[in-house]
Structure formats: C-alpha cells, structure tokens
Amino acid sequence: MVHVLSSRVLIRPVDPERSRAFYGEALGLAVYREFGTGPERGTVYFLGGGFLEVSGRADRPPVPGLRLWLQVPDAQAARDELVAHGVPVVREPVREPWGLVEMWIADPDGTEIVIVEIPADHPIRYRPGI
C-alpha cells in the first residue's frame, strides 16, 4: 500500500497568466506557494483539503474528462460572487435528484468546475457516532 502524504491537481494551461487570474482573482483561491520564474513559474492554490497547481504551459486545453469538484457552504452566494468577478455561469445552481445543489462554471481553457453545496439534510452530512 502506498502511503500518500499529500496530493494536488496539476493543470497545464494554454495561457498560464490568464489561468492564474481566473483561479486567484475571479475564484479567489488563496495562494499556498509560488515557485520558478518565466515560463517555469508555478502557483499552488489551497483547494479545500487539497491543492491546485497551475504551472507550465500546454499547446492545447486539457483532456475534456478533467473536472474539478469544489464544495462551498452556499452555492447561490458563490454564484453571485463569481458573477460579480466576471465568471460566466455555465449552469445555474440546481438541487439535483441526488440531493446536492450543483452549479457549473469553466476555467479559461474550458475545464469544467462544479460548485457543490451539501444541504444540511443530505446523507453526506450524517456521521454515525458523532
């Protein structure tokens, strides 16, 4: 068994500065660390219990199957804040049949991001013995 100490999602954007502006300014993710200079510059953002690293440069956008799942306390409040920062909403917040409230946005390269609110009555919040 591999003993994992930490993890992060790595994104190689087509336009690194545009992606840093999106994740750092529009989404407002806090910077964990920055490294390198020029085309080798990288930024690692706090992403809840994990990290998101934006570094390097790609010739084309990432594989369409890559998606980010970001949990927030209030999807509608997140929507309003994102729209105020110029982020287009791909799909408005909706309570899904499985009980989560989900909203979809996309980063500048088209990476889909689902913003998720877990309502108080959802089974994910049930913790036996606590």
Helix/strand layout:
Blueprint (H helix, E strand, L loop, with lengths): L8 E3 L4 H11 L4 E5 L6 E6 L2 E6 L11 E5 L3 H10 L6 E5 L5 E6 L5 E6 L13
Parallel strand pairs: 1-4, 5-8
Antiparallel strand pairs: 2-3, 3-4, 6-7, 7-8
Which stretches of 5+ consecutive residues score pLDDT under 50? none
CATH H-level homologous superfamily name: 2,3-Dihydroxybiphenyl 1,2-Dioxygenase, domain 1
Biggest sheet record:
4 strands, mixed
> What is the CA-based Rg, rounded?
16 Å
Structure description:
By secondary structure, the chain is an alpha/beta fold. The protein has a single domain, classed as 2,3-Dihydroxybiphenyl 1,2-Dioxygenase, domain 1 (Roll), CATH 3.10.180.10. It is built from 2 helices and 8 strands, in the order βαββββαβββ. The strands form 2 sheets. It has a 4-stranded mixed β-sheet with strand order 1-4-3-2, covered by helices on one side. A hairpin with a 5-residue loop joins strand 6 and strand 7. It is globular, with a radius of gyration of 16 Å.
